[in-house]
Amino acid sequence: MLAPMGLIDDTTDFGARVAAHLRDDVVVWLTTVTPSGAPLPSPVWFVWDGAEEVTMHSRPSARVRNVEANPNVTLNFAGDGRGGDIVVLSGHATPDTTLPAADASPAYLAKYDEHIARIGHTPETFAQAYSVPVRIRLTRLRGH
Q1: Average pLDDT of 51-73?
Q2: Are 79 and 85 in contact (CB under 8 A)?
Q3: 1: Cα separation from own chain's centroid
Q4: What's the chain's Rg over C-alpha atoms?
């Protein structure tokens, strides 16, 4: 199934599953493109705005450099392990320092506070390490 650009219709079964993944999943696979053109998937934590944007926080790394060079990305959820519940979102990513740091984002902290502690960080040390907020504007949805 291919949804129109930027549309997540949670009144359909597929759209409701997509919205549930975006709201509830802890990790999504973000794929960026390296300067040589190779895809580079990375598991990331993220927060969905309920509409057409996702925010994640990254270490200053190849992932951020890739996004700066080529903003085209995909977000892929794990599926059900049997070829079902496939959700792939395409989008345009931009490092965006106007977004709040991870420790200043109530939505991010509500979703990841216990996970931040589990990996040995406080919200403040996490925000220092993952200091680059990235805005992803969702442009396409496909899956089944």
Answers
A1: 96
A2: yes
A3: 21
A4: 15
What integer is the mean pLDDT of 120-140? 98
Give the CA count within 13 Å in the CB-facing half-sphere of 116: 20
**Pairwise CA distance, residues 8 & 14, whole Å:** 9
Please state the separation of Cα 36 from the chain's center in Å.
23
3-state SS, one letter per residue, for the chain? CEECCCCCCCCCHHHHHHHHHHHHCCCEEEEEECCCCCEEEEEECCEECCCCEEEEEECCCHHHHHHHHCCEEEEECCCCCCCCCCEEEEEEEEECCCCCCHHHCHHHHHHHHHHHHHCCCCHHHHHHHCCEEEEEEEEEEEEC
Decide the pairing of beta strands 28-33 and 39-44. antiparallel
**C-alpha to C-alpha distance for 130 and 72, rounded to whole angstroms:** 21
Q: How confident is the model at residue 79 (pLDDT cuts 50, 70, 90)?
A: confident
pLDDT tens for residues 88-107?
A: 999 999 999 999 999 999 99
Mean pLDDT of 32-45: 95
The yes-or-no verdict on residue 4 having pLDDT over 50 is no
